[in-house]
Design brief:
Layout lengths: L1 E5 L13 H15 L3 E5 L18 H4 L2 H4 L3 H20 L4 E4 L9 H4 L4 E5 L5 H8 L6 E5 L2 H7 L8 E3 L19 E4 L8 H11 L3 E4 L5 H8 L7 E3 L5 H10 L2 E4 L9 H8 L4 E5 L3 H5 L3 E5 L3 H11 L5 H10 L2 H17 L2 H5 L1
Parallel strand pairs: 1-2, 1-3, 3-4, 4-5, 5-6, 7-8, 7-10, 8-9, 10-11, 11-12
Helix pairs in contact: 8-13, 11-14
C-alpha cells in the first residue's frame, strides 16, 4: 500500500525521542516499510532522514515557538494550521491508499478530506476542547478512529464509542529491548521530565523504599527541574541523561524495578512496556491506562500516594522478571500492532465509495 503517515510536529520524529508520540511515529514508519509498504512521513523536516519525508513544517515547531512561551498563542496556531492545510492538500493529490493520522490536528478529521483519502486517526491524548468536537463529528465509512487504551475509549466517548472507534495499543519491537535475567537491585524511571509525569514523586518513593534510582529523559520543563528535581538529586538518586533506544535499553536491563508515576490521565505509557520487555516489574500509580498496561507485571498504588508506591516498589521486586517480558510479547509486540494497523487500513479502504460500487 501507499501510506501517508501524518505526524504531530511539536517535535521531530527521530531518536532520541522526546516522548511516546515521536516513538510511535518512528516505529510505525519503520515497521510498515519493513513490511514492504510505500510510506511517506508527513512530519517536521528535521525528522529522521532514513524516511521519505514530506515536511509539514521545515523544522519542529518547538524550535520556533518554545512550548513554555507560546502555548496556545495565535502566532503558533496560525503557523501549525498553515503547515497542516498544505500537507492535507498534498496528501489529497498524492495518490495514497490510506492516511494514518497521528497529528492531533483538526484538519485531517474533516469529512471533505477523509472522503477523498480513507483515513485512520489515532488519538494519543485524553479529550480536550480544541479537538473534541471535530473528533465527535468525524467518524464515517472512510474514517476510523483508534485510542491507545480502554480507559481512553471511555474518556473520549463516556456514553459509548461509535462503531468506527476501537482500541489500538501501542507496541514495541521486543528484540530492541533485550531481556536481562537479573537486575542490580536498583530502580529506574524514564520519560519527559515535567510535572504531569510525577518525576519528583518517583524520587520520594524510591528514597522511602531505600532503593537507588536513576532518571532518564528530556527535561521538558526547566522550571520544574530546577525547583523539584535538581534539589532531590544525590544520595542514591541520579540523572542519567536523555538516551537513544539502544543505550536506554542497556540501562533499563541493569535495573530491578521500573517506576511509572503518571499524574494525569495517562493514555498508555510506552516507557512502561519498554522496561517490561527488559524484564523489569513495574511499581505504578493507578492513573489513566497504567493498570491496563502493567497487569500482572507489577504492583499498582493509589494515584499520588508516595508511601503506597514505596511499598509497591518492594512488593514488585518479588515478581519473576519473565512475567513482564511475557506480557509484552503477548499484548504489546510490534508484529501484533502492525497486523492490527494493516487490518484497519484494509477495512477503511474497502469502505471507500469506489470499492463499494465495485
Amino acid at each position: 500500500m501507499r501510506i501517508a503517515l501524518l505526524a504531530h510536529v511539536r517535535q521531530p520524529i527521530r531518536q532520541p525521542f522526546l516522548g511516546g508520540m515521536e516513538a510511535h511515529g518512528w516505529y510505525l514508519a519503520e515497521g510498515l516499510m519493513a513490511r514492504g509498504h510505500e510510506v511517506v512521513l508527513f512530519a517536521s523536516g528535521d525528522s529522521d532522514p532514513r524516511f521519505t519525508i514530506d515536511p509539514v513544517l521545515p523544522t519542529h515547531y518547538e524550535a520556533v515557538f518554545p512550548w513554555a512561551e507560546h502555548r496556545g498563542k495565535p502566532e503558533l496556531i496560525a503557523h501549525v494550521d498553515a503547515g497542516y492545510a498544505a500537507a492535507c492538500d498534498r496528501i489529497a493529490r498524492g495518490g495514497f491508499d490510506v492516511v494514518h493520522n497521528n497529528s492531533l490536528h483538526r484538519f485531517p478529521l474533516e469529512q471533505r478530506r477523509t472522503a477523498v483519502t480513507p483515513t485512520v486517526t489515532s488519538l494519543h491524548v485524553p479529550p480536550y476542547d480544541a479537538l473534541h468536537h471535530f473528533v465527535a463529528v468525524s467518524p464515517s465509512l472512510s474514517h476510523l478512529l483508534t485510542v491507545t487504551s480502554q480507559s481512553q475509549l471511555r474518556a473520549w466517548w463516556p456514553e459509548g464509542a461509535p462503531p468506527e472507534a476501537s482500541v489500538l495499543h501501542n507496541a514495541i519491537d521486543p528484540a530492541a529491548w533485550p531481556f536481562v535475567a537479573n537486575g542490580n537491585g536498583e530502580a529506574v524511571w524514564c520519560g519527559r521530565i515535567t510535572p504531569n509525569k510525577g518525576t519528583h514523586l518517583a524520587i520520594d518513593a524510591a528514597r522511602r523504599a531505600g532503593v537507588a534510582l536513576t532518571l532518564f529523559g528530556a527535561v521538558e520543563d526547566p522550571d520544574y527541574w530546577a525547583a523539584e528535581i535538581a534539589p532531590r538529586l544525590g544520595g542514591g538518586i541520579r540523572y542519567g541523561g536523555h538516551l537513544d533506544g539502544a543505550a536506554l535499553a542497556a540501562e533499563l536491563g541493569r535495573a530491578s524495578v521500573f517506576l511509572f508515576t503518571p499524574c494525569w490521565d495517562e493514555p498508555f505509557g510506552l516507557v512502561a512496556i519498554e522496561a517490561m520487555a527488559c524484564g523489569l516489574p513495574v511499581a505504578a500509580f493507578d492513573q489513566g491506562a497504567a493498570r491496563e498496561v502493567v497487569g500482572e507485571a507489577g504492583v499498582i498504588a493509589p494515584a499520588g500516594d508516595v508511601a503506597a508506591l514505596a511499598a509497591a516498589i518492594q512488593d514488585s521486586l518479588a515478581i519473576d522478571r519473565a512475567v513482564p517480558r511475557r506480557r509484552v510479547e503477548a499484548h504489546f509486540a510490534r508484529d501484533l500492532w502492525l497486523d492490527r494497523c494493516e487490518a484497519l487500513y484494509a477495512s477503511v479502504t474497502a469502505a471507500r465509495p469506489g470499492a463499494i460500487a465495485a
